[in-house]
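hiii so my PI (J.) wants the whole complex modelled not just the main chain, which honestly fair. so below is everything: two entries, each one labled with what it is. i double checked the lines twice but i was tired so who knows lol
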Amino acid sequence: DSGVTQTPKHLITATGQRVTLRCSPRSGDLSVYWYQQSLDQGLQFLIQYYNGEERAKGNILERFSAQQFPDLHSELNLSSLELGDSALYFCASSVDLLAGNEQFFGPGTRLTVL
Amino acid sequence: TQLLEQSPQFLSIQEGENLTVYCNSSSVFSSLQWYRQEPGEGPVLLVTVVTGGEVKKLKRLTFQFGDARKDSSLHITAAQPGDTGLYLCAGEPSGTYKYIFGTGTRLKVLA
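here's the output for the full assembly
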């Protein structure tokens, strides 16, 4: 158990819909990262927040957005869903920016768009 | 685009054999991490290498960071079926603020 929690574990929805994925980092970790993993794309970095502020953006679509709240939990919002958005979405956390970027991953949310 | 290329992409070996996985980039990294991922689960951190030329051992696993901090390797001695999984190197190219994962090496150890 990494100490990072993600909900829900599974999500099935239809094209055009909007969903919210939630992540609680390990106690004391200030950084939260979101990743998308699909069979053909590997593990893709989406976005990173550090202590409530956006720090880095990766290959995140404009239809996707995220935020980190004062209690440090984070949410990833996916809207106007397409079939191709079906994937595993992972959240990870790390202590701070100087900790060698060692990240601890949650169990993931499997999103299926029908 | 910064890339972390891993080789081989797939590896199927017999129990007891040795193997080496390579992670290469044209970018310099302040540190590199190695993770192992089981199907349907999140990656699990194995080790972080920080100093050029550094060698770290974790039981039968030996990790090395290249002198120029652009590449790394993972050597497994006497592989066991429990070593089966997807091995990923990862890091943040210096100055980019973007954490990237390698292309992955899928290892299968047969009993």
